[in-house]
Amino acid sequence: MGAVRPPSLGLRANLAQFTLLVAVNALVGGMLGQERTVLPLLAGQTFHLNAYIGVLTFILAFGTVKAITNFLAGTLSDRYGRKPVLVAGWLIGLPVPLLLIWAPSWGWVIAANVLLGVNQGLTWSTTVVMKIDLVGPGRRGLAMGLNEAAGYVAVAVTAMATGHLAGEYGLRPTPFLLGAAYAALGLGLSTLAVRETRGHAHHEAGTAVSPLSTRRILTLTSFREPALSAASQAGMVNNLNDGLAWGLFPILFAAHGLSTAGIGLLAALYPAVWGFGQLATGALSDRIGRKWLIVGGMATQAVALALVAVGASLSVWAAAVALLGLGTAMVYPTLLAAVGDVAHPAWRARAVGVYRLWRDGGFAAGALLAGVVADLYGIPAAVWTVAALTGLSGLVVAVRMYETRPVTVGGTGSGRSPSRGPGPRPTHIPPRV
C-alpha cells in the first residue's frame, strides 16, 4: 500500500477549490450588502428612530457579535476543521433575511444582526483561512486580494441592487429576497462542494514547531508582537470608519435631498472601488511589501473622510467614497497577508481570528463613537473625528510595524525569510515567544 501523498500548496495546484471559495465568499459579502442601503433608511422611515445612536444599534450588535465570533472561528477551525465551521455559519445565516422582512420592531432587526454577525464571523473568517491554507506562503497577498475583492464587490452589487429594488418596490420585502437566495446557495455549495483544507496547513507547518496556547496567541497578536499588534489596531480603525460609512452616510446623503437610488449608488460605489481595487493591491503587496501600502491606505482614507465632511453634492461625495474605497483596498487584503506572514501555520487560524476580533470590533466602536458625536455635534463632526483617528492609526503602523513580506535573495516573494542580517524580521515567530 503506497504512502499517502501530502497535499500540494499553491494557487495553481488548488485552483478549483480556491475559485469555489472565492464564489462562496461573494455570497458571504452579499449577505452583508443586503443591508448597506436599506437598513439605515428603514430605521427612520419605518421604525421612526431619531437619535443617531439608536439607528446605529444594529451595527453595534453586528460588530460586537462578529468580532467575538471571528475569534472563536479560528479556534474552532483549528480544533474541528474549516468546513464544519463554514457550514455552521451558513445555517445560522438562513433566518436573517426573513427576520428583516417580517420584523415588527427595531429589536427584531437587532436580533437579525446578531445572527448576521455570527454568520459573517464564521463564514468570512473560514474562507480567509482556507485560502491561506491552499496557496502557501508565496502568494498570500494575491489570495487575500481575490478573497476580499469577491466579498466586497458582492457587497457593492447587492447594495446597488437593493437600492434600486427599494426605490421601485419599497424597503420591504423585495430587497431582502436577494439575501435569502444568497444564504440558500452558500449553504448548498459549502455542504456539497467545498473540501477541508486543514491538512494543507498541517503540511506547511511540518513538525518542528509546537503549538502556542490560545491565550499566548491573543497576547502576541493584540499587544506584544509589533507587526501583529500594529495590524490589529489598523484593522480596528479601518472598520471603525466603515461602520461610520455604513450607518451614517445614507442619512447624511438623504438629509441633503438625494433620492434612494442616488444613495444606493454612493453606497455601492465605495465597496465597488474597495472590492475591485483589491485585485491589484493584494498582488502589489506581494511585490513591494505590506507596511507602506498600509500606511498609504490609512492616509488615503483619512483624506477621503475629510472630503465627505465638507461635501454637499453627489459629485463630490462620489469622488470621496471612491477615494475611501481605494484607501480601504490598499489596507484590507494587505493586513490579512501581513498576519499570515508572521503567524506560524500551526496557530495561524487563531491569529487571524484574533486580528479579526479587533478589526470587526471596529464596527462596534465606530457605532458608539459616531453615534455619540453625531448626536452631540452633528454627522460632519463625527466624520471629522473618525478621519483624525484614521490618520493617527496610519502613523502607528509607520512607527511600530516592520516589513513582513517573505523575501529571497532576489527580492521576490517566496515564503522564506532571511535568517540573518538587516531587513525584514523572521516570518514565523518561534514558539518560545
From TrEMBL:
Biased composition (Low complexity): 409-420
Domain Major facilitator superfamily (MFS) profile: 9-405
Localization (cell): Cell membrane
Chain segments annotated as transmembrane: 12-32, 52-73, 85-103, 149-167, 174-194, 244-271, 292-310, 316-336, 383-402
Pro residues bias: start-end ranges: 421-433
Location of the region described as Disordered in the Swiss-Prot/TrEMBL record: 409-433
Bilayer topology term: Multi-pass membrane protein
Highest rank taxon of the organism: Bacteria
Assigned GO CC terms: plasma membrane
Coiled-coil portions: none
Main location: membrane
Any one GO MF annotation of this record: transmembrane transporter activity
Protein name: Predicted arabinose efflux permease, MFS family
Species of the source: Nonomuraea pusilla
Taxonomic lineage from the root: Bacteria, Bacillati, Actinomycetota, Actinomycetes, Streptosporangiales
